[in-house]
């Protein structure tokens, strides 16, 4: 860990973000521009995200599979809007085994096309439906401006792909998975999100409708944290995904896709982090409790370490780490684990052993406010309660911050000011022209049209025409 102080978030938010990731050993820059190496601590967080989402997917009837990394270029060209949307971001392989390939191969930016091809082979009858498949993997999108976790050339994610007999089933699936993402963000990551529908300009290339969960970061910018797409019959028609219905008539399927990536690691960092470093939500933190033994002599060590071992064993249901380094001071350790965002720190010294107590420090409440002493009785129950309180505290703090930075501007001039320091929640007529003008003039985009609407009607914040829906405008990552 560098001895140099972290820049504060108000001094330089972008540099604070980069430095936190590097110093907490979450990730590092790869030799290829725009790529990252996810280090063990960052990968452990991603593994916990994976495990939680995977459980939720399987509980809703989905199964995992794996599809190829390389996709024939002709596959992408079958769906016009899809290839137009992804063309600037494609990485293309033209030579293999020293020979020029007959057909270029695309390193997958997403897998709708290759999976559509396979579904056309597998689906024959209505009895084959629905198909509910997810895959965990990596994709490549040739981004021009990159940032660790938030936007990298190669990133890790899951992508679900389903096929259904009816439009209603496909829409139900699309919204079900949006809700899965919402519940994960709130219940496991303590990140408040707004689920909603994307505008036509912001939707996924080739989708009939796109939905997303949008989160506010600590600098008030928005982050698209997960997406769910109703693809209609666009890909089914492009790839001949058809089935014989109960009346023995040939019908096109209705398909969906949905994805959630390592970008959410960035969401956790920017939603909860503070000037001391990471603040990780307890349910996902690689280490939930760190135990720091404190002793100055061999005699004190002999007194303290048996208690440390007993506490470690009692807390075995949790993800525990004992920091028994002797080459650094306890103060260095405290700062190190604060930087790494471990939710709970337990300090055990000779006085604690004598009194039968433990000193506990909560990461969500730095300084004296977060310190307390607990008895060594029923330790696991007390720790579970602490972690539950920390989760609730993180969520409430993030939600309060978000709500304090959402505004309902009275006119367009006020919107221009509002989006410099938060989100605008405004009536919009649905016109692409108004949307484009707002983006050009303010750098704010439509984030989502929330599923929960206030009702009634209003006037478009830009053109003043009648509007039936309110939308979030914000600058975004």
Structure write-up:
- With 477 residues, the chain is an alpha+beta fold.
- The chain folds into three domains: 13-272, Bira Bifunctional Protein, Domain 2 (BirA Bifunctional Protein, domain 2, 2-Layer Sandwich); 289-385, Rossmann fold, CATH 3.40.50.800; 407-474, 2-Layer Sandwich (Translation Initiation Factor IF3), CATH 3.30.110.
- It is built from 14 helices and 25 strands.
- The strands form six sheets. Strands 3-7-8-14-11-10-9-22-25-21-20 form an eleven-stranded mixed sheet, with helices on both faces. A five-stranded mixed sheet has the order 16-15-17-18-19, sandwiched between helices. A three-stranded antiparallel sheet has the order 4-6-5.
- A hairpin with a 5-residue loop joins β10 (209-216) and β11 (222-230).
- α2 (40-59) crosses α6.
- The chain is globular.
- 41% of the residues are buried.
What CATH calls the topology of the largest domain is BirA Bifunctional Protein, domain 2
The percent of residues in helical segments reads: 25-40%
Low-confidence runs: none
Number of helices: 14
Class per helix and strand makeup: alpha+beta
Proportion in β-strands: 25-35%
How are the strands of the largest sheet arranged? 3-7-8-14-11-10-9-22-25-21-20
Biggest β-sheet description = 11 strands, mixed
> What is the number of domains?
3
Distance linking N and C termini: 28 Å
Report the principal-axis shape.
globular
Rg calc: 25 Å
CATH class wording of the largest domain: Alpha Beta
The CATH architecture of the largest domain is: 2-Layer Sandwich
Q: What's the total count of β strands?
A: 25
Average pLDDT over all residues: 96
Please, what is the CATH homologous superfamily of the largest domain? Answer: Bira Bifunctional Protein, Domain 2
